Each structure stands twice: as structure tokens, then as C-alpha cells.
Model the fold of this input.
Amino acid sequence: MNARTTAQRVRRGEISAVSVLEDSLARIHAENPRLNAFLRLDEEGARAAAERVDALVAAGDDPGPLAGVPIALKDNLCQRGVVTTCASRILGEWRPPYTATVVERLAGAGALLVGKTNLDEFAMGSSTENSAYGPTLNPRDLSRVPGGSSGGSAAAVAADFTPVALGSDTGGSIRQPASFCGVVGLKPTYGLVSRFGLVAFASSLDQIGPFSTTVEDAALTLEVIGGHDPRDSTSLRVGAPQLVAHVDDGVAGRRVGLVRELFEGADAEVVAAVHTAAEVLRAAGADVVDLSIPELSLGLSAYYIIAPAEASSNLARFDGVRFGHRVSGEDVTAMMEATRTFGFGDEVKRRIMLGTYALSAGYYDAYYGQALKVRTLMIDAFARAYQHVDLLLGATAPTVAFPFGAKSHDPMTMYLNDVFTIPTNLVGHPAISVPFATGEGGLPVGVQLLGPGMSESVMLAGARILERDREGL
Amino acid sequence: MSSSLSRDDVEKVARLARLRLTEAELDLFTGQLAQILDHASDLAALDLHDVAPTAHPFGLINVMRDDLVEASLPPEEILREAPDAEQGRFGVPRIVGEEP
Done:
């Protein structure tokens, strides 16, 4: 049962939040040992929340728009007192002393926070194979990756553990696993959702967003978690977005750009899905035009300089002094080296070193400086495109979910997964992946809609059309 | 521009980043990082001298709040999560020797 229906029935007293939770936990206990989507459950906390919701309903009060909806949290989101690992050994059994704003808002809306999901360590990866706690399996095909970095959250929704999960998207980490697992994944406008309490990877790119089974549930969740937060200095000065009311607005009269650079090079079945999506939007009254934005081809290079540069700075705080795991050493430097060498996995080490190099004297201008200028080129290029169209259409990922081990030996091959999702993060815009077709082996194929900053309402209405008229998933 | 990343460069960067690499890791990472930097060489080849850099998608402005005392996290809760703490402080290996 999706989140909106669940909350409606709980609010009307037709079903109890406790029974919704027990159903969810039963599914998790039956299947999670195989899938490894959740790293940890907070059954006690979720039960207490469910009882509060039922008590409010019994007293005639409204517990909120997500009343009784079980929700999973990517394990880089802090929840006071609940162990948070970022799927890294370096955090050990760290219990955050504070709660992320998004988590507070979900709880305040009546949601039941059932547990923390697996990810690529510190959200660095595209397959969830970089977790210190083992990979998550794709519920659609257990021999394949769920995508990443938010693979555990995508799998939790695809396996029907919870109707909604939160992830974080720095270069595609919500949209690509959504595509691989056959669920909806939304990356909001940068600054629309507070990052307070999200463990930072690349601060100018990171954004929290929802996974769900329906476009309407993504809208509903974003309404709850979006809006200004004084505890995040990059938070936009906007109120909670109004989205659910516009989900069925349709696309009649909207102009949509079918962007060559956002599907060229993808597998044939993915390209076919994008063209079918264009036809579906056209049939619903949109004016779909072919577009080329050549600057997008520079995105991957710019991203894999900027994101590691920011990561090398953000991850300097993990030094064994204030929190997490410590490996002792004869002096402070030796202790920090031993801690970080033991605590970080290979991909995190690669990105820290890459970022340190790109920021170092003699190379700063050639790499980081150029990448920041390319970011300007991309912002200008998107702005020119949006003078002519309301939305852009492309693929989410170049392929369907790939088998375990297929790309983990070669970082550059893995990075190419993100080629269609990265441009959005570099310019701070929203984008959504909608499950739309099936490809090789009956595996899901997502298509991606992109819009300018704060265009979530229009983008979700377009996504709703794709969801309504897609071919049988 | 092709990357000229050397094994010595990686060794130096690892030291700066407080990471210890084995000889085998040094070889592996040097090859992998060189490959990534080679891919980024399309950036270095662009003439962008008249383009302004963007560090942040919407620009950052200083955020100020009223200078009022607010509750902060209790020190004991913070120190409880530290690997080592004593006398209300984070404990680390000795930095300053007892004898000159």
C-alpha cells in the first residue's frame, strides 16, 4: 500500500499505525537477511511512534500527512541515539547526538522511522558494493546490484519493506538506484531540503530526496521535508512546497526538450524507452522538441574533480579524535594515519587522494579551477535551454542494473554510470527518475525528467504522466 | 594534456591526507588516479580565461542570526561518543614531551 493511501486510512482510523508497522517489519524480517537493504532497525522507536499516532487518532487529533507510514533512512542521515555508520568502519558504533531536520520533519508528520539503510561508503559509489557491511542485492534480480549510492533505500522500497525511503543524491545517488530497482527517485532543487544532519560528502552538490512507488508519494514526502531551515546556511528562503495538489496538472501546452546528450551512448533498450517517453508526453499534449546541449558532455570530468575535492575536505574530520573508531598510534599523526587507513575503504581513499591532488599547489588551476568554470558553462547552457522549454527528458542510467563485480575493478567504468545524472547536481536543479519500461532480463528502465530550479511542481506533473501511461512494469 | 601523475605524487598526496598505502596499493592507486585525471584532461584543454568560476549553484550569502544565547549540546553527550575522553576533554596521544 502506498504512503498516501496508508496515511489516509490511518488518519480515518480504518487501520492502525501499529498494524501497518507490524506488516512492514514482518516483510523486513523475512527478506532483509537475504537483501541486506537495512543495516539496522529501530523497532522500539518505530513502535513508540506508531502507538503515538494511534493515540492521536483515537483522541480525534490529526497525526499528520504521513501518519503511520513506515519510512527507511539512508544511513548517512543522523537520528539522535540511533547508530549511524555511513557504511564505513571509521564511524564504528557512533550514535549521533542530534537529529537531521528531514528526520524531525518526517517524525512530526506521523511517519514511522523503521531503520537505516545500506549505501556505498560515505555515499561514494554507484552499486552499493563499496559498503563496509556487504552489498545490497537488487530485489528484481538477486545477482545484480541495486545501484548506488542509496542502494539500500531503493531496494527497501522495491522490496515493499516501506513505501517511502530517503536517500541523498550528489551525482545521481537517488535517481540511478531508483532506475535499477524500478521505483521513483527524486533529487530536489539544491537548498530546497535542509542538509542539517546529513553527513557531508560534497557540500555544494549533496541533496536529500525521496524514493517511493508512486510519483504522488514523492510529492507528498517532499512537501513534508522541504522548506527553509535556519540550521542549514545553504537552505533556500522558501516555505514548504505545494506539490500534491499539482501532480495531476498534466503536460498539455508544456514544452519538453529531448536532450541528445542525456541518452546517447546508452543501451538500445534505454534509448528506446526515452523515445517512447517522448511519445507519451506528446500524446498527453506536450510539445516535445529535439535538443542538443553540448556542454553536458563536460559534466563527468568536472564532477569527478569537484566532488572529490569537497570530499577530501569534508572527510578530514574523521581522524579518530572526536567520534567513531580509533586505531592507536605512538603519536597523534600516527594515530590519525592508522585510524584513517583502517577506517576508510578503497573508493573513499581514492576520492580523498584525488581531491587532495586536485586542490594542491601547482594543479589547482588546471583541475579544480577549470572544473568550477565548467560549472558556470553548464549553468549558462541549461539557462539557454530553459528559455525554450519547461522540462528536459533523458535517460537516468545508460544500462539496466549490472551484475555484481562487473564494474567494481575499474573506477572509471563505474563513474560512467553517472553521466546522465551528474549535470543536474552541478547546476543545482531538480530531476526525477520514473520507472518506465523493462530491458534486458525484464529489468526495470527509468527515464529522467529535469527542470530548472524550483520547478518540482511542473516536473512531478510530467512524471505523473509517464507513470500513468508507461508500458507494463 | 595527459596526466603525469607519478607514484611519488600519490605517495605525497597520501601522506598529506593521512593515509598509509602498501607498495601494492601505491601501484594500483597510481594507475587508477592517472586514468581519472586523464579523463579530466578535456577540462584542462578548454580556453576558459574569461569565464567566472562557480563554487556553488546559487551563490552563497552569509547567514546571520540574532546574538542570543541558545541551548547547545551537553558536553557529556559529545564526549560519550569520543574514543578517549578525560576531564571534559578529548584524549589524544601525548603531543608535548615532559622533558625538554
In short: The helical segments of chain B are 7-16, 23-39, 41-44, 75-80. The longest helix of chain B spans residues 23-39. Chain B touches chain A through 47 residues (CB under 8 Å). Chain B has a mean pLDDT of 89.
